[in-house]
Amino acid sequence: MNKINIFCFGFGQVAKSFVKKLKLEKIPFDFITTSREETKNKIIEGINHRSFSFDEKKYDKNLIKKLEEADHILISIPPVNGEDIVLKNFRNVLKNKKFKWVTYLSATSVYGNHNGEWVNEKSQTNPTSINGIERLKAEENWKKFSEEYSLPFQIFRLSGIYSNQSNVLKRLKIGEVKIIKKKNHFFSRIHVEDIANALFASLSNFKKGEIYNISDDKPASLEEVVMYGVKLLRSDIPKIISEDEIENEMLKNFYKDSKKVSNKKMKDYFQLVLKYPSYVEGLDYINDNFI
């Protein structure tokens, strides 16, 4: 693969894992990132890079030159106050550049509630949460923009992300987990390394205008996942509460939706073999190496 020049709008765990994957695969690349902090040089994976200040109120104008030089764009900044701040600020730069790859990281919350049934990329999108509603609006604006200016654009709808650093085992150890009793409540998840693997696969196998669900093979209830964590840690069962007792607003929204997210399109198109096909393999690995 020829050298690539990546501009990362936002630099959270997914973008960091993607950079780590590129280095692991020995792909020659340069990259620029943005964050809410002041502009500065940072080091990740032993690589020195420039991180430019960018938030909903202001941005470092020097980033425009770097954006114009990029050929790959990864957008992982969620909507802010209902608006996609990347499109809001950089439409004119983005429409005048011949990029090779533009990927928007969305979320499976755009599907809303499907009463525990399977959803795929053609399923109805009827989000119930503010996050899902804003994500769907951002998707639609990006699709319209990319079609108008013929951008090589794709959407990755991510299920619940966990990682070696952020996972149910660590939350169990510090007492941050409760079990909420609700029948027929399913959700899907994905290890951050498998997101990075899918992003990497799409670099060489890209189809313009596509949407992919990025999920593992085994949707499950949160109770099922927590109880597996309890078994691994040999810990006490967390407090069990009813849905009516939930105080956290984000958690309330989480329990409004029940669905099983199909990853068939992702696996078939990218010929992707998941490193962690379910929470079982993911939590086993984390328990053996990080707990």
Task: Identify the CATH architecture of the domain at 4-163 and 190-215 and 262-271.
Answer: 3-Layer(aba) Sandwich
Give start-end ranges of low-pLDDT stretches: none
Main-sheet strand order equals 3-4-2-1-5-6-8-12
Structural class: alpha/beta
| Average predicted confidence as pLDDT | 95
Radius of gyration of CA atoms, rounded to a whole number: 19 Å
- CATH topology-level fold name of the domain at 4-163 and 190-215 and 262-271: Rossmann fold
Distance between the termini: 37 Å
How helix-rich are the residues, as a percent range?
25-40%
**H/E topology pattern:** EHEEEHEHEEHEEHEEHEHEHEHH
- What is the level 1 CATH name of the domain at 4-163 and 190-215 and 262-271? Alpha Beta
Overview of the structural elements:
The protein is an alpha/beta fold and 291 residues long. It has a domain at 4-163 and 190-215 and 262-271: Rossmann fold. It is built from 10 helices and 14 strands. The chain has an 8-stranded mixed beta sheet, sandwiched between helices. Strands 7-14 form a two-stranded parallel sheet. Helix 1 (13-24) crosses helix 6 and helix 7 (222-233) packs parallel to helix 10 (279-289). The radius of gyration is 19 Å and the shape is globular. The protein starts with a strand and ends with a helix. The model has no long low-confidence stretch (mean pLDDT 95).
